[in-house]
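Honest question from a wet-lab person: if I give you the sequences of every part of a complex, can you actually get the arrangement of the whole thing, not just the pieces? Trying it with mine:
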Amino acid sequence: MLLEYLAIALLLVVSTLVGLIAIGLGELFGPKIKSKVKDEPYESGMPVIGAGTRRMPVRFYLIAVLFILFDIEVVFFLPWAVAFRQLGLFGMFEMVVFIVILLVGYAYAWKKGALEWE
Amino acid sequence: MDWALLLEWFLKSLVLIFGLLGGFAYTTYYERRWIARLQVRVGPNRVGPLGLLQPIADAAKLIFKEELTPAKVYKTVFFLSPLLTMVPSLVIAAVIPLGTSFTLGGRTIHMYLANINVGALYLMSVASIAVYGIVLAGWSSNNKYAMLGGLRSTAQMISYELTLGLMFVAAILLGNSMSMVDIVEGQRDMWFGAIQPVGFVLFFIATLAEVNRSPFDMPEAEQELTAGYHTEYSGMKFALFFMAEYQKMIVVSMIGATLFLGGYRELWFLKDTFLSVDRAWFLGPFYLVAKVFLLLGLMIWIRAAWPRIRYDRLMSLGWKVLVPLSLAVIFLTAAGILIESSWFILISSLLAAAVAVAFIQRALRRKAYEFA
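Yes, you can. This is the full assembly:
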């Protein structure tokens, strides 16, 4: 079984090589003519104002934190799903309790406006 | 070390990679031709017969393009993020079975690279890596459009990843295994998409958002963000992003077909006829390719038919409708397995979906009333 991961590692190496070769081909055959304007960031032809990376809206962080919370819940579902037929009714009740706890947190996030995007 | 095994892996890797690269090239052709048809145009038809050499001409053009690297980018990350986006889109295909097995010179050759017992988990984790490539591309470009595109794309992808992951759980519940081969073989008597069509539709919606396809192509909303996260990329580095996008389309279609549409297996009611992959192993890849072709066609059709969804509605749909609906679908699937009735799963999930649609309609009507 562990041997199969070696096959995936081989695929990883080969596909990285394909990517590097693609970039290399571009470097090899593309023209390279430097100029000051080409060095500037592209802003639809307007003169560049300020830095490129600035502060971002806090909503994105909120979404990311919510995602981490809920994605871990999804990971908890996976072993349960595989073992479900052995667990039977017990597994069902366990998961109902789990989903209810999850939904309480979800309702709280909704009520607090974490899911709003206005 | 078994050298024949190593050689087999190497050849399979090459088949996968070049299959996906070729698939990528001809998916662009397929998309352009079919979108043209849907818009009553002809599409590319000049390069070669029926324009079939068009993708090759495009690739050659991109190789000979000048590659710009603006002065203020974060060089290492800027260089690595196209690779970080493209490589997972190839590697993810490792666990997807393309067919059963055949014998060649006394060796049994299985038509998958690896049959790991946590196949579904592998798919989910590799799919998540692609998010890094996109957010790092946006950040390292030192460009406002790229930054916004990368952020939007990340928020959208992680929001819909929840639905995607939960639908994996639905398929695992039905297949009783995380191995992709077991999931496909579990669909011998009935496709999971026929037992749980709501699950398949949710999975399909989530994959559209995952691969940034229309109507969820916010990261590339060209009217607002020029080109989104790859604004500063040109030449082959841009080509890698482009490749990644189309390869991801192909791969998620393959995953969707594997989880819900029987993968390499025939239609379930044909399982005892001569069209079954049990009788004719070479039909497996054809069935899978046919399903991928249909799903890609559906994605392109959606792009031609629907306008882009508004960003706040995108997030509302993901968090307020799809997440609870997915939880309900999993709950109903588990309950249906417990009482051993696939009709219960089918009907109750359709009812849950109807409630969700009614909820969306009510929300939209209330909004329209507020604005009036």
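Two things worth pointing out. The longest helix of chain A spans residues 59-87. The radius of gyration of chain A is 25 Å.
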